[in-house]
Model the fold of this input.
Amino acid sequence: GAGVSQTPSNKVTEKGKYVELRCDPISGHTALYWYRQSLGQGPEFLIYFQGTGAADDSGLPNDRFFAVRPEGSVSTLKIQRTERGDSAVYLCASSLEYLNTEAFFGQGTRLTVV
Amino acid sequence: KQEVTQIPAALSVPEGENLVLNCSFTDSAIYNLQWFRQDPGKGLTSLLLIQSSQREQTSGRLNASLDKSSGRSTLYIAASQPGDSATYLCAVDLETSGSRLTFGEGTQLTVNP
Done:
């Protein structure tokens, strides 16, 4: 596609439920990133992939969060046993290469845990 | 730990005014710095990327400068328009961070007709 696509755009879930957020990067981009943005804050890094492997997952807040990118393109961020504090906008970005290249962001998924 | 600070947090100007947004960062070992625009409820749109070896980049009415040694960048917007109203975020790509971006908290700009 022309840009980074994220689905769903909005997700409301009950506390304790499992959710999956999907990201389709720009075709040909090898690097993919997940960020989380709370209201009034800048995005905070969660995890990034170079190809299929998670090159750095040090930003994941705890083991309830997990992400995969099995074929080196689409990525899914998975959150288990959701908590109200997980409510935020989850942003995905991709870039052509691993280092020192421009990042392009999707529109984000707004997750609300009630 | 890299810290990125943006000043002011909010800015309101009349249409047509030239304005400057500021970004400072504590660790000067960066690959690049990017300026983004974020409209309410939307994702981030990349405006300008400045490599660490560059001093400035221009796109239309936007000009971004980088002083790596002092840890500062400015985004200059000429002849502001109501359509420029948005939150502007700067982000640095640290040499030691393996391509993750560290963001400031943004400047919320309102341009009044």
Summary: The CA atoms of residues 78 and 97 of chain A lie 24 Å apart. Chain A has a mean pLDDT of 93.
